[in-house]
Amino acid sequence: MAAVKLxxxxxxxxDNFSIEELLKQRKIAPESVIVAxxxxxxxxxxxxxxxxxxxxxxxxxxxVAGG
Length: 67
Fold this sequence. Notes:
Layout: E1 2-6, E2 9-13, H1 19-25, E3 34-37, E4 40-42, E5 57-61
Parallel strand pairs: 1-5
Antiparallel strand pairs: 1-2, 3-4, 3-5
C-alpha cells in the first residue's frame, strides 16, 4: 500500500495504483477534472501511466462556470 495525499487528506492506495484507477474508484469522469500530481498538471492521456507512490500529493480540481 502507498500512503498519498488526495486534496489534502491522507489516503492509502494499492501499490502500482494509477491516477486513472483512482478516478475510476471515486467515480470521477477524467474529462470533467484537472489532476495535479506533485504540483504538476497531468495530461489526461497520461492518467493511466502515472503510478502513485508513498508521499505523492494529488489534487483533483473541478471547474464550474457561473454567471
